[in-house]
UniProtKB/TrEMBL annotation:
<feature type="transmembrane region" description="Helical">
    <location>
        <begin position="100"/>
        <end position="117"/>
    </location>
</feature>
<comment type="similarity">
    <text>Belongs to the YccS/YhfK family.</text>
</comment>
<feature type="transmembrane region" description="Helical">
    <location>
        <begin position="494"/>
        <end position="514"/>
    </location>
</feature>
<protein>
    <submittedName>
        <fullName>Putative integral membrane protein</fullName>
    </submittedName>
</protein>
<keyword id="KW-1133">Transmembrane helix</keyword>
<dbReference type="InterPro" id="IPR049453">
    <property type="entry name" value="Memb_transporter_dom"/>
</dbReference>
<feature type="transmembrane region" description="Helical">
    <location>
        <begin position="74"/>
        <end position="94"/>
    </location>
</feature>
<keyword id="KW-0812">Transmembrane</keyword>
<feature type="transmembrane region" description="Helical">
    <location>
        <begin position="417"/>
        <end position="437"/>
    </location>
</feature>
<feature type="domain" description="Integral membrane bound transporter">
    <location>
        <begin position="384"/>
        <end position="506"/>
    </location>
</feature>
<dbReference type="GO" id="GO:0005886">
    <property type="term" value="C:plasma membrane"/>
</dbReference>
<feature type="transmembrane region" description="Helical">
    <location>
        <begin position="149"/>
        <end position="168"/>
    </location>
</feature>
<keyword id="KW-0472">Membrane</keyword>
<keyword id="KW-1003">Cell membrane</keyword>
<dbReference type="Pfam" id="PF13515">
    <property type="entry name" value="FUSC_2"/>
</dbReference>
<feature type="transmembrane region" description="Helical">
    <location>
        <begin position="464"/>
        <end position="482"/>
    </location>
</feature>
<feature type="region of interest" description="Disordered">
    <location>
        <begin position="682"/>
        <end position="703"/>
    </location>
</feature>
């Protein structure tokens, strides 16, 4: 992506306001929490205490808007508690420049490593450092620092209490995740009517699975509508693909294809109705016309063979969906649970060992997270020193900008750097103009700060430029409560914001962590995960009596995670101003198509797993073993830019084809398509940049 296009995309994204994502009631509740804290501390305390306490309530409110499956009160308390500790330590170190510089370096290093735990932890930790840089400028003593920290914690308690007392659409994020998953499967069914090999994005199903992970307390309080549907959607998806596929499903034309289209459309209608009911907590209204289609026609079956088996399986699954709309499906249990009916999620204390394991896993020099932590620590320290040396005052604004801008990947850092400077400039000009023209008192400044907080909460999930303007104006009005003159902030903050943004961008030039060189590794990981998934499926066809459903399921989840990692890396690499290293954009697209086809073919074969009493298949066993033996070397070849060899897999397939030449089954047809996808992958990676027609040499099975 060129710099001009990146700037245009940043401007569009930063100013876009999506009305469907606005939550006015939630924003009003968060603003009320800020108003309560500011009003009480102004009335009972002092303007300085009001400023620090308002930061606690404000930051707790921001934390509750992050995309997390944790209860919102817990997020508010965790954010306020971390901010209180951060601020108290900052006050203790702020007396001396050297000690505070060491404090900033160490604290920003830890907050940078917090991205290893997850994006929510990273964002909340970044926010802690940013607020600490502002609050420690307010004069106080050690005892006063304790008081400031306690008031910051009180702000989180107030926000958590408001969430408990005035819940707005409880379980809303879980409802949305499950409804999105069902709607995605419904949309997939509709697209299959016109395109039998339409792609499917598994991200909604992955989100729904993450949302289904619960603590024991959450499991006891979970609404009935959030039980059972996710696993049914997971099971319906491969059956839809199997029914629509022209090779293993319904015939490409004729009455069979018409019947398949009717079944796909009716399934989509039912799933959409269930998704709407789950999203808004309403009873399910099932159209009778769609339900009539999902029955065996009175004139007899119109499908045959594998297509008929897929249709009967689809009817049974949709019937389970209909039954679930009336009563809980107690027979459907979540994977990974032995005696529970939910996916276990660690409690807050249980997250400590999980977080420590994540930090140890990323404590290596090649880790993008560690490189980000070192980068943000160095930039924040340099920004603080430069800001303190310059004669403008308010030197904390430079490191604050750098901390808020820097992200582990270049794309977000660049877009946020431009957006933050633009939004900060607008916020400073707006807030400074109001302070200069109106000269508001403490209470009026507090009211204006609450309005800015409400605007931020309302527009939190929209453009970053708008959000940055709201945050900056909030800080200007909040400091106005403590008597900070507007003339001390406008020019200085604009210049220091530009300095902080420039430092953040320069840090990426001096110490980059590009995704582009890692694309081949991500592609190799995806190939390995897809291969293990295929081996697990063909193992079941080889030895049905020894089937282990958990093995297939876990392999599928690993393949989905590898695909998501590839897509994330590829999207980030697309925004980086660096050249490819052994993997051109065309080759990456072709390889992605081949691996997507490989995963889809494996899913089709999984949809026709034999019963446990079915006879064993020696041919399927030989094919699975050949794939298992060839996979590690092929993965290594992809990493090292060599041509992968699939000779043993081709030979096993040829023997299987010879033995089932007259009546090939679904498994052997799937194996044929799988080998074709592997050959396409090899061809894509062996293609030399600028020569799209070049082909790999010595690859058997391809003319």
């Amino acid at each position: 992506m060129s710099w001009s296009h990146a700037l245009k995309a940043t401007a569009r994204a930063g100013l876009a306001i999506e009305r469907t994502r606005l939550e006015p009631l939630v924003a009003l509740r968060g603003a009320c929490g800020v108003a309560l804290v500011i009003g009480l501390t102004l009335w009972l305390g002092s303007p300085t205490l009001a400023v620090s306490s308002a930061f606690g309530a404000f930051s707790s409110g921001i934390a509750t808007f992050q995309r997390s499956w944790r209860p919102r009160p817990a997020l508010a308390l965790a954010a306020a508690g971390g901010l209180a500790v951060s601020t108290f330590l900052g006050y203790l170190a702020a007396a001396h420049t050297a000690t505070f510089l060491v404090m900033i370096a160490a604290w920003t290093l830890l907050t940078g490593m917090a991205w290893a735990v997850g994006p929510v932890s990273g964002l909340v930790s970044t926010q802690m450092v940013a607020v600490m840089l502002v609050t420690v400028t307010l004069p106080t003593s050690v005892l006063g620092a304790l008081q400031h920290a306690a008031l910051i914690g009180l702000g989180g308690v107030v926000q958590a209490a408001l969430i408990v007392l005035f819940p707005v659409r409880p379980w809303g994020v879980q409802r949305d995740a499950l409804a999105d998953a069902l709607a995605a499967v419904a949309d997939y069914a509709r697209r299959l009517r016109h395109d039998p090999v339409a792609p499917f994005d598994p991200q909604p199903l992955m989100e729904a699975r993450s949302a289904a992970a619960l603590t024991p307390r959450q499991a006891r309080r979970r609404p009935r509508q959030l039980r059972g549907y996710r696993l049914l959607a997971e099971r319906i998806r491969p059956v839809l693909a199997s029914l629509a596929d022209p090779v293993v499903g319904a015939a490409p034309d004729g009455p069979e294809r018409d019947r398949a289209r009717d079944l796909l459309g009716a399934t989509a209608t039912v799933l959409d109705a269930v998704a709407h009911a789950i999203r808004w907590g309403k009873p399910v209204r099932l159209p009778p016309d769609a339900m009539a289609v999902l029955e065996v026609p009175p004139t007899g079956p119109m499908l045959s063979g594998a297509a008929r088996r897929a249709a009967l399986r689809l009817m049974a699954l949709v019937a389970d969906v209909v039954e679930s709309s009336d009563e809980p499906v107690e027979a459907v249990t979540a994977e990974g649970a032995k005696d529970r009916r939910y996916l276990p999620r660690p409690t807050v204390p249980g997250m400590v060992p999980v977080a420590l394991r994540a930090l140890r896993r990323e404590a290596r020099w090649s880790s993008p997270v560690l490189r980000h932590a070192v980068r943000v620590s160095a930039v924040a320290s340099c920004g603080y020193l430069l800001g303190a040396a310059l004669p403008w005052g308010h030197g904390y604004w430079a490191p604050l900008t750098s901390v808020m801008v820097l992200r582990p990947d270049f794309g977000q850092t660049f877009s946020r750097g431009v957006a933050r400077f633009t939004g900060t400039l607008a916020g400073v000009v707006l807030g400074g103009a109001v302070m200069a023209l109106a000269h508001p008192g403490p209470y009026v400044s507090a009211a204006l700060a609450v309005v800015c907080a409400a605007s931020l909460y309302l527009l939190m999930r929209t453009g970053f430029i708008v959000a940055s303007a709201c945050v900056t104006a909030y800080v200007v009005f909040l400091l106005g409560i403590a008597g900070e003159g507007w003339s001390q902030t406008v020019a200085a903050r604009v210049a220091l914001t530009l300095l902080g943004g420039a430092l953040a961008m320069a840090a990426y030039v001096v110490f980059p962590a590009w995704e582009t060189p890692l694309l081949r590794d991500r592609l190799a990981d995806w190939l390995g995960a897809n291969g293990r998934y295929a081996v697990a499926v063909f193992d079941v066809h080889a030895r049905p009596a020894d089937r282990r459903p958990r093995q297939v399921r876990e392999a599928l989840l690993d393949a989905r995670a590898a695909r998501a990692a590839w897509e994330q890396s590829e999207a980030r690499a697309h925004k980086e101003p660096v050249r490819h290293r052994g993997l051109s954009r065309g080759a990456a697209r072709a390889a992605q198509t081949a691996l997507s086809t490989m995963g889809r073919v494996t899913m089709l074969v999984e949809a026709h797993l034999p019963a446990s009493d079915a006879p064993a298949s020696k041919e399927a066993e030989e094919f699975a073993e050949a794939l298992r033996q060839s996979l590690p070397e092929a993965v290594t070849a992809v990493r090292e830019r060599r041509v992968a060899e699939w000779g043993a897999v081709h030979e096993a397939l040829e023997r299987w084809q010879d033995r089932e030449e007259e009546r090939p089954g679904v498994a052997v047809r799937g194996a044929e398509l799988l080998v074709e996808a592997l050959d396409d992958l090899t061809q894509a990676l062996a293609r030399r940049p600028g020569k799209p027609g070049s082909r790999p040499g010595g690859n058997p099975g391809k003319d």
